[in-house]
Design brief:
single chain; mainly alpha; 10 helices; flat; GLUT; MFS_dom; GTR11 protein; membrane
Amino acid sequence: MWNVLLSYSGLVALIQLLLLPFFPESPPYLLLQKGDKAGCLKAMKQLWGEGNYHKEFDDMMKEKAVTKGTKIMNVLEVLKERSVHRQLSTMLLVLLSLQLCGLKIFRTANLQESIIPYVSLGVAVSELISVIFCSSIIDRFGRRLLLWGGYLVMALILVLLETSLLLSDRFLWMRYCSVILIFLFIIAYGIGP
């Protein structure tokens, strides 16, 4: 009954996709990234209700002042930074272990057992690519757009994946479509949610 479980996650993503446009951007993003003080205060009132949020606003302004002189590092600079190697190693270990999660879907798609380890390795590579890509575009597009777009693409991919899995017994090439759709789902998840 894994397909029911897969459909459930698609339903949750669809609900989040429908509700996301009604929520404001995060106040720290509006203030620190966009420099929109009025938008930040408006978002605070929308999220937390009426009240006096000047203390929180002042804390964010202090954070902005502290980080003003701080250089924002790109992905290559982070990889070269020795002080974060332990955290990066832990993250890489988690990413590599996640490749085992799709084995059931690959078996359901009737892939040959000898191909499944390579496909699982492709899943890990897809996750790594999406993390690197997302970290480079999140400041440009903002979290809201990436979340909204990511959930929309994920919902579409889940529908296509369910269809390809149902048709994989009839058409041999649909098995490989399922694998490609799983890669795309992981990339959409990593870039968005």
